[in-house]
Specification:
Two copies of one chain form a homodimer.
Chain A (H helix, E strand, L loop, with lengths): L11 H11 L3 E3 L6 E3 L1 H20 L3 E2 L5 E3 H4 L3 H8 L4 E4 L2 E3 L7 E3 L4 E8 L4 H11 L8 E10 L13 E11 L2 H22 L5 E4 L11 E8 L5 E11 L1 H5 L3 E3 L5 E3 L1 E8 L1 H10 L16 E5 L4 H20 L4 E3 L7 H10 L4 E5 L1 H6 L1 E6 L5 E5 L3 H25 L2 E3 L3 H10 L3 E5 L4 H11 L2 E6 L7 E2 L6 E2 L2 E5 L3
Parallel strand pairs in A: 3-9, 17-18, 17-19, 22-23
Antiparallel strand pairs in A: 1-2, 4-8, 5-8, 6-7, 9-10, 10-16, 11-12, 11-24, 12-13, 13-16, 14-15, 19-20, 20-21, 23-27, 24-27, 25-26
Helix pairs in contact in A: 2-6
């Protein structure tokens, strides 16, 4: 199978598309722009969900569920937000089909079942949620509201790619309401940090924390914080965003509270989300020409055991050893699969688990039985070694930790060697084509310049890094004064 | 608060609606027929999800995710299914809004953004899933497919009630494919049994397992198995269904496999689901005039501790005792909350936790500190006792088990005393009005009689019980011969 995989150096984009399908993560469906997330892909997403959900609850958030549909009048209440999403939304206009009398067995939209008001399939839920918060908030005692929702959303994208850009995707969206501006900003920053922690420590993907420029800001937000990751082809990927909404939605939906002095004030809001897009980041950060490489934290199968045998007696003896090893691994919380299919040869199985990114593969043969050993192959480094069966569980647990850390280090090294300070526009264009990555450059702070650079190079400002140092300089494009560097990149 | 709750004997339906809102489970939204599931309600749903998900995985199923939308041509492929859902589906016809030039700040559907083919918001996912299975199944080696999806679905109901009947609801839907008819039937029955196990042992709601008549069968199924529960007002509630789909969807979507002899055969299918409707069953089975009564397995808070104090010193001393108790309970896996708000009196808190159905409430006062005791109040029986602090954790754990069992027993006793054998139609009508419950009666087996009885009495055949005994008799309505009794009831 893996021999059929396009190599990254040949065509990175094709490699990605093929890998997602061949590794059984997802596939295109019969519905334009919508994907099917297959069981193996969904198992990874479930692991992400479980960890994120734990982190949200630990930081005081509760889950709830709000409607899929947003009536048009509600949708348009916050004008900037509505404008931002109006061009790409699915609209329900009717509520019944009827038999098409001209075509036996076919159905048609019943023209008598037109809705009085059109319903928008949520592209994001600020409108529906803030219209609800109005009745939940009267006094400062009702604040903060710290709520998260796991849901599907729809954005009518014209060009779609599995996980990276699909018409429907799965995500979580946090929506919080606060009594003060300061508290809302702290929440926005806290959730950006939760995302960074998750993406770095759980997904082994290093990120840069920053703030979006006005051009790239969420429609309806006063400020958008983001975490930006770098893929192996030198393109950036926005891995999560956290928005400070100011009082925009509170004003649009008239959400006020009585403060401690009894005075009416508008509530301050935030929203934050990550989506199945993270699956794309996962694939593109770690995987190689042989297939997926999964960080142990996210691998549905962390260890696979393949028996190497000629006779049934050998298989049975290996089975006994494998059973004991599996029991030990399971007790240690490590997920393990024993693949004793006799319909497939070991070589076939090796390829399959390489394609699927299983972090550790164990082979046990007759010699191993005699010597009390097994062979272990690391997916990330493609290295093998023979180790003693004694103390195997501890050894494997340590290896998994090592792989998790090593994947992060490798991605971090790639990322760090792909941030380049650039001061001239020709160099900017050259570097963007030759090496890619983040270009750290001065910018005059205007949306016009940002737009012009995007037109000319397809690079956008990914973020103004939170840790940037003040440095007087000249805009890489206009030469006008700048107070510090921002990060440009082509992006997914 | 609870003093404002309508009593069940006054108006059961009003009691239910009020309770769902007052106990913070859910509320109506600004979108017709769609509900908001509030954090407390969602926390209960999450507990259901977690347990069901565990049970599905234990029985070999994997989760996946399929698109929200179904193109019309795909929707209509299985004609019986399409007909069954055509009258109540939300239809997406456009994919863009634009500025309404006649109304500043308002948006309108862009007539230039009409879809070539309408998309149906899934009312159920057989069509989209079977259209996908076509490419997943070639050989008998690819079978069985054992897949589950957690998702939202939309059915355009005209009269809606929180949890019981909403335009959008949350559910899980299993969709499996098998090589043989026998295996598919076994799967259908297995999942009905999983549901019965869950609803009885986790939700403490007794159910009757049975088969639906043709009239009540899922559109597109050859056989629908169901579990039926009985609410406190004598009306039945279908708590879960499991459908044997025969080869209907395989034929509609041309899903064939090569059997071991290399011959092409159509695949056999099942589907099965339970939904947020179970929340309604939960409320209506156990709760009382003071509010929710939650089985400990489903209670987000299983034990609440309320300090009774006059001075800050007392509060602090009680806090120390509570801390220790909480640590012990948490270590035992019991969820506990300590409510030391000083803004509310104990009586207010007692009412609040009664309303919210917390199974055990503990009060600790200064006397308790002296005596090494605490007061414990059971929500289900509304009884109190004073017990020693020594060994408190074990005592409380035992109490929780006792409550879980006791709720089931109470519901079972109610159910058992509300199944009545009836042989005459006058008695049938009388009993239906005076007592309700399941009426076990003979039926001549025709859809016409079933329809007629429904017209006259609003009672439907809830199921043909799996454990019914063969008994020759005469139809309660027509007097024609019958081979055994079926269960009639008015139903939600």
């Amino acid at each position: 199978m893996s021999k059929n995989l396009t190599q990254r150096s040949e065509d990175y984009s094709k490699w990605y598309n093929e890998l997602v399908v061949k590794a059984d993560l997802a596939e295109n469906s019969g519905v334009r722009g919508c994907m099917v997330i297959k069981p193996y892909g969904y198992a990874i997403w479930e692991k992400m969900q479980r960890e994120l959900d734990r982190m949200f609850k630990e930081t005081g958030h509760q889950n709830a569920y709000f409607p899929l549909f947003v009536p048009k009048s509600m949708f348009e209440a916050e004008e900037t937000n509505a404008e931002g999403f109006a061009k790409e939304c699915a609209i329900v206009t009717h509520y019944r089909l009827k038999a098409d009398e001209t075509k036996p067995g076919k159905l048609m939209v019943d023209p008598n079942a037109k809705l009085e008001e059109e319903l928008i399939v949520r592209p994001t839920s600020e409108a529906i949620i803030w219209s609800t918060y109005k009745s939940w908030v009267q006094s400062y005692r009702d604040l903060p509201l710290l709520i998260n929702q796991w849901a599907n959303v729809v954005r009518w994208e014209m060009r779609t790619r599995l996980f990276l850009r699909t018409a429907e995707f799965l995500w979580q969206e946090g929506h919080t309401a606060h009594a003060t501006r300061q508290e809302a900003i702290e929440e926005t920053e806290k959730m950006m940090n939760v995302y960074a922690d998750f993406v770095e420590n759980f997904m082994a993907i290093p990120v840069i924390k920053g703030i979006k420029t006005a051009n790239e800001r969420f429609a309806g937000a006063d400020e958008t914080y983001c975490i930006e990751a770098l893929m192996q082809d030198g393109k950036a990927l926005q891995a999560g965003t956290s928005h400070f909404l100011g009082q925009n939605f509170a004003k649009a939906f008239d959400v006020k509270f009585a403060n401690a002095e009894g005075k009416q004030e508008y509530v301050w809001g935030t929203s934050w989300g990550v989506s199945t897009r993270l699956m794309g980041a996962l694939v593109m950060t770690h995987s190689d020409d042989k297939g997926l490489v999964l960080p142990p934290n996210l691998a549905p199968i962390q260890v696979v055991i393949v028996p190497i045998h000629k006779t049934d007696e050998q298989l049975s003896a290996i089975g006994n050893v494998a059973d004991e090893l599996m029991a030990g691994l399971k007790a240690r919380g490590i997920s393990v699969k024993y693949d004793d299919r006799t319909t497939q040869k070991p070589g076939f199985k090796f390829n399959e688990y390489e394609l699927k990114g299983v972090p550790l593969r164990i082979a046990i043969g007759p010699n191993d039985l005699e010597n009390g050993t097994f062979e272990i192959a690391r997916r990330d480094t493609l290295t093998k070694e023979t180790v003693a069966m004694d103390n195997a569980v501890e050894y494997l647990a340590t290896k998994l930790d090592e792989i998790q850390q090593s994947l992060f280090n490798r991605a971090m090294e790639y990322r760090n060697t792909h941030i380049t300070e650039v001061d001239g526009f020709d160099e900017f264009k050259d570097l963007l084509e030759s090496k890619g990555g983040f270009l750290s450059a001065h910018w005059d702070g205007t949306p016009e310049t940002e737009e012009k650079i995007k037109e000319l190079t397809k690079a956008t400002i990914r973020c103004i890094p939170l840790d940037r140092v003040a440095e007087a300089g000249k805009c890489v494009f206009t030469g006008k004064p700048s107070a510090g560097r921002v990060l440009f990149a082509k992006a997914y």
